[in-house]
User: Fold Tol-Pal system protein TolR from Luteimonas colneyensis.
Amino acid sequence: MSVRARRGKRRKLKNEINVVPYIDVMLVLLIIFMVTAPLMNLGVDVQLPQSNAKSITEQKDPVVVSVDRDGNYFLAIEAGSNEAVDTASLQAKVRALVANNPDLAVYVAADGAGSYQNVMDAMALLQNAGVEKVGLMSQPRQDGTP
Assistant:
């Protein structure tokens, strides 16, 4: 009788899934994504012009950094004043302007026939000078195509 009693008291198998390990894995993945997501934003904030865009109206004249075909820099702080500068003086002058006004609008105007590397170098110089937002200038098309 003791053998029969043992057979009757066997445990039944559970048909439920234990989800606790899955929840632990999901929480670890959530923490990893929350930590790495802010690090994914690399580069310079650039506001690229679109075709048929309206012009920006501001109360003050923006600071314009012009880059010619040969990669020479020109700085225009006020409308009509365009002075040739080298990289060190460009960074120093823009850094001083940003120190006075952190929300300073800085635009890069480059020659269309020039190298794209010249534009990227100008944007890197502005970023090193502390400018957070850089806009690219363009002229509207004359033929009306987008």
